[in-house]
Write a structure and sequence with these properties.
This protein is an alpha+beta fold. Helix content is about 55%, strand content about 25%.
Amino acid sequence: MLTNEEAGELYLQIITALSQSNLFWITSQVQEEIARGKVITKSLRDISIRQIDIFGGPGQRKSNQTQTFLISETYTAKEQLTLLLSALNETTIIQSIRNEILSTLKIF
């Protein structure tokens, strides 16, 4: 199994190779996805003190509420490599299907 460091090195090697080929556009899309980060859900418990009506109610009351937020988290080196390899796999499948269709149509 790869360490994060090894995955990072392999990722950079593949990115470099793709950047020098006609598949450079894959690197752009993967890097955009990595820059956005992975979206995860975080729950935070909000413990606050609320002021109550000064004319009739108690002076303060504690409120315990849980709030859920979507946040962006950085991909690990292993996850970055997985994203890149998945993109390459999808591209290979799409190109294979395209070539099969074109050969069936005998256009090219």
